[in-house]
Design a protein that fits this description.
The structure is a single chain. The chain is α/β, with parallel strands linked by helices and about 400 residues long. The chain is built from 13 helices and 6 strands. It has 2 domains: about 130 residues, no CATH class; about 250 residues, NAD(P)-binding Rossmann-like Domain (Rossmann fold). It has a 6-stranded parallel β-sheet with strand order 3-2-1-4-5-6, sandwiched between helices. The longest helix has 29 residues. Bound molecules: nicotinamide-adenine-dinucleotide. This is Sorbose reductase sou1. It comes from Hermanssonia centrifuga. Belongs to the short-chain dehydrogenases/reductases (SDR) family.
């Protein structure tokens, strides 16, 4: 039997940030006869009525996933009038439709929690885990990743493929992709369960060319009929130069790639996300250097360019939120790639120094960013935007 258990709410808040907001774990519409439903307390309704935030518990993702528990898995079509869909679900499906709108009304959030929206699925006996099959899955999604001929961009592109993306477009400077990229593509093509999917594509282009990037975005949209994920990873780090005499041309060059190029990349993808109306996730690769300064390194151009990226993410997030386009920045610490190898391979003492600055006592590996980029790209983070 379903039951309402107000007292259980605190135990279900672990993964969400606000302690005063009761959070319900998916699936809301449980299909296990013995599972009880946890509903929020009356105080919760009071808190949302008074303008307190209602958190990700009621995000479209949870509702979307909860509908996957409906019989016959008919919910994704949202066919409220489909005769196969049980009458009981009619109200729920109407709610789901409204929740997919950019600005669902307060009533929809309140109605969502009414007891008559709670039911058991008479056709199943065991619940199916959704976390990796749904929330973290990028099945059929299309992505654009800049700077993905190598390094962090390529690693992230592969992670998106492994998470189920239909196609990941890698944008970088060389006319032809590197041998490393070709090998990764061969590997991606062989990843099991991805027959005919998981394509890694390469397009030569510079992120500093705004028109060119927009055209690339448009061509991907025309070909794939959607564009869901963007990772703006292209970046450069120029050699040490005293800030008091830093040459204008080099300062502009670094900002042109690391700041302007990130904006042009986000625009290229964001325009297509807006065009197809599916929402999307844009991930701007910043750096810890956007928030802290690397002492003993004269990196004024790099540090300034990365700081701008963090604020760009917050600014774009606020503008694009109504279109369900999320924009977050991701700031790695020291990771061993070609960019850092330029220092580490010639100045051996730097490895120990950089490692000592990290709580883990070491520098990172590119593959250690796979999880976070997949989380940000996927529906596992649908209530996360403007975050660093
Ligand atoms: N490696 C680190 O420790 C570290 C730390 C923090 C942030 N980052 C950031 O992560 C991102 C990836 O860095 P990485 O370590 O993989 O470096 P990398 O040098 O290995 O890769 C950067 C890629 O960007 C490409 N690129 C440069 N200019 C471009 C342009 N105009 N248009 C298109 N592509 C261009 C390069 O060709 C290269 O393939 C960068 O934005 C970097 O600032 C790296």
């Amino acid at each position: 039997m379903n039951s309402i258990d107000h007292g259980d709410i605190s135990r279900h808040t672990g993964t969400h940030s606000s302690p005063e907001v009761p959070v319900q774990r998916a699936p809301i519409l449980t299909n296990h006869p013995s599972r009880s439903i946890t509903l929020p307390s009356p105080e919760f309704f009071g808190s949302i009525a008074s303008g307190a935030h209602y958190a990700g518990a009621l995000s479209p993702t949870h509702v979307e996933h909860s509908t996957s528990h409906l019989p016959h898995k008919r919910a994704p079509s949202l066919g409220a009038d489909d005769p196969i869909v049980h009458e009981t679900y009619r109200g729920v499906l109407e709610d789901v439709k409204e929740l997919f709108c950019a600005r669902p009304s307060l009533e929809i959030f309140q109605r969502r929690w009414r007891k008559d929206a709670v039911f058991e699925d008479p056709l199943s006996t065991a619940p199916t885990p959704t976390l990796f099959a749904h929330e973290f899955s990028l099945a059929d999604r299309v992505a654009l990743v800049s700077g993905a001929n190598r390094g962090l961009g390529l690693e992230m592109a592969l992670a998106l493929v492994e998470a189920g993306a239909r196609a990941v477009y890698c944008i970088d400077l060389p006319k032809e992709p590197s041998e490393e990229w070709q090998k990764v593509r061969e590997y991606a093509a062989k990843v099991s369960g991805k027959e005919g999917q998981g394509r890694l594509e390469y397009i030569s282009g510079s992120v500093t060319d705004q028109d060119g990037m927009w055209k690339i975005g448009e061509s991907i949209g025309n070909k794939e009929g959607r564009l869901d994920v963007c990772v703006a990873a292209a970046g450069i780090l120029k050699s040490h130069t005293d800030c008091l005499t830093y040459p204008a041309a080099q300062f502009r060059q670094v900002l042109d790639v690391n700041t302007n190029g990130v904006l042009f990349t986000a625009q290229a993808a964001g325009q297509q996300m807006a065009r197809f109306g599916n929402g999307g996730s844009i991930i701007l690769i910043g750096s810890m250097s956007g928030s802290i300064t690397n002492k003993d390194h004269a990196w004024v151009s790099y540090n300034s360019s990365k700081s701008a990226v963090l604020q760009m993410a917050r600014s774009m997030a606020c503008e694009l939120g109504p279109q369900r386009i999320r924009v977050n920045s991701l700031s790695p610490g020291h990771i061993y790639t070609n960019m850092t190898a330029a220092y580490l391979d010639s100045q051996a003492h730097l490895l120990e120094k950089w490692a000592s600055l990290n709580p883990l006592g070491r520098i990172g590996r590119p593959d250690e960013l796979r999880g976070v980029v997949t989380w940000l790209a996927s529906d596992a983070s649908t209530f996360c935007t403007g975050s660093e």
